[in-house]
Amino acid sequence: MEEILLKIEELENNHDQVSPELIKEKDIKLGLRNPDGTGVVVGITSKGLVVGYDKVPAEDGKGYVAQPCEGRLLYCGYDVMNLVGNIHAEGRFGFDEIAYLLLTGELPNEKDLNRFSDILAKRRALTKLERGILMQEAENENQMFALHAVISHLSRCDRSPRSTDLRDETNRCINLIAKFPTIVAYNYNVMKYKQGLNLNIIKPDAELSTAENFLYMLKGKLPTKAEALLFDLALILHAEHGGGNNSTFTVRSVSSSGANTYMAICSGIASLSGHLHGGANESVRSMMKTIKRNVRDWADRDEIRRFLEKILDGQAHDGKGTIYGVGHAVYTLSDPRAVLLKTKAEELARIKGSMPEFRLYNLVAEVAQDIFTERKGLTVAANVDFYSGFIYKLMGIPVELYTPIFAMARVVGWAAHRIEQIIQNKIMRPAYVTSLLQENSYIPLNERENRDSIGG
């Protein structure tokens, strides 16, 4: 068994790897990226806009070149930093409002917002059948696996799960937005119950906001308003990030095939579970644990640099050569979400007496930026994942829930993009070119060379 598996692995590596020269020769946009790192334009959306570069005239006067700029994130044409600043300045929770905006393209008036929030509040509670599904499927300790399992089976609770009528789709998406926080909180508590703790299932309170309800259902006690507003901020910042991020693009691609809502949203969950996407904040937390164990002086820039270089060279931490939480596919000089969360992380760290660790985070981000610039000529900054896990840790949220929380926020963006994709009604079918130089001729089985290894 081991021998044939080893040979198959060797053959896979031999035939599936493609040289950089061939990629350049055939002008392949690997990873759907242009040579300058920007994404290949494959669609159009009104939902989100991610800005990391400015287009400036080329020196020769012919065309434009991409120049790094301070990052911006817009939801339906509204700057997110401006949205959050104004909503929270009024002392209000904003996640429901952002959900309405992304679904409709317009900010609601007070009457419509109240009606929309009432709908979400009424739909947060799980039916008897939904609770039964959760109890059956939430045994897995990996909370993204459990979330995927539960959502995939919710179609059993839908009288017409295959209907693509726009009203049915919208109704279904709103239902999922409402239930995701309940499912995430319950999944975790059921897992702890399976491990021997008391079962802690709390019904959502219709008088509480989305952020308040989740923390209440998770911990069994009401959060302070300051804590809930901070969590509300995190949900807003994770709700949408343009059509090109991996999970949203996956949802759009699967939706374009005519797959139903549950399968499409599950594809987003599957994508988000990857450590290079939604799982990055967990990876940051793990990396920082390693750094804290191996760096004696958290204020020593040179010592931190030496250890980060070891990580980048694959000689420390997980051996993958990745400094998690630094750098982004689009943002260059800054990630606006990280800018907001950094400010809030400092405020919370002061309250919790965790300023030494907060300063370590900042220094790691700064030194990592220098290393990337010197080694690779890249302009990078800390991304949203760098500070979100730190904030969740200070709030007492279990690390197993970092990525599911991302999903319960991003389901808003997934839903909005799914509806937009259905309206645009075009199946996705990008092209791949062959890496082979010639067509092969069939060789009868008894005439094929008998090789024990690739070398023959």
Please give a structural write-up:
- There is one protein chain.
- The chain is mainly α.
- The chain has 2 domains: 72-277 and 406-424, Citrate Synthase, domain 1; 280-394, Cytochrome p450-Terp, domain 2 (Orthogonal Bundle), CATH 1.10.230.
- It is 55% helix and 5% strand.
- It has 18 helices and 3 strands.
- It has helices spanning 2-16, 20-25, 80-89, 95-104, 110-123, 128-137, 143-153, 166-194, 210-219, 225-238, 246-256, 261-272, 280-294, 301-312, 336-352, 355-376, 384-394, 402-424, and strands at residues 48-57, 64-75, 78-79.
- A 3-stranded antiparallel beta sheet has the order 1-2-3.
- Strand 2 and strand 3 (78-79) form a beta hairpin.
- Helix 4 packs parallel to helix 18.
- The two termini are 20 Å apart.
- The mean pLDDT is 92.
Instruction: Give the overall average pLDDT.
Output: 92
Largest sheet geometry:
3 strands, antiparallel
The helix content, as a percent range, equals 55-70%
What gap, in angstroms, lies between the N and C termini?
A: 20 Å
Shape: globular
The strand count comes to 3
CATH top level class name of the largest domain = Mainly Alpha
CATH architecture classification name of the largest domain? Orthogonal Bundle
N-to-C SSE series? HHEEEHHHHHHHHHHHHHHHH
Short description:
The chain has 456 residues and is mainly α. It has 18 helices and three strands.
